[in-house]
Amino acid sequence: MPNEKSIILSKYRLERAKEFLSSARKNLEIEEYKTANNRAYYSIFHAMRAVLALDEVDFKKHSGVISYFREHYVKTRIFGREVSDIITGASLIRSKSDYDDFYIAKKDEAAKQVENAEKVYKITKEYLHDIYRQNNFSTL
After folding, report:
1. Residue 129, SS3?
2. Model pLDDT, residue 37
3. What angle do CA 63, 110, 98 make, to 5 degrees?
């Protein structure tokens, strides 16, 4: 059972995911597609970390967060395989957007990344709110 500290941290991280999602949408609107890809990825990343907070685990590397999330939440079918596929795609595109000098981010690709981040945020939020309610903590 999660404790009060882990739930507070989880709520904080979920709020960060929401903020990054909002930024991704704004960047998409102003045609900053690389930045939209980055913000969409970080929305997904912080949503995963919000879930991991309940287990009182965290990792210094993104790969550790992703690996743990997949092992404990996708393989156990708490979250569907689609979420894992979205994480893989978002990580790859974020890396290209951030580090490949000549990568050209396209509108349709960035729009898909934002859409995927919205899906992950929604699914994660629903899961976490159920946990919060089960533990008598109010939702955000």
Report:
1. helix
2. 98
3. 45
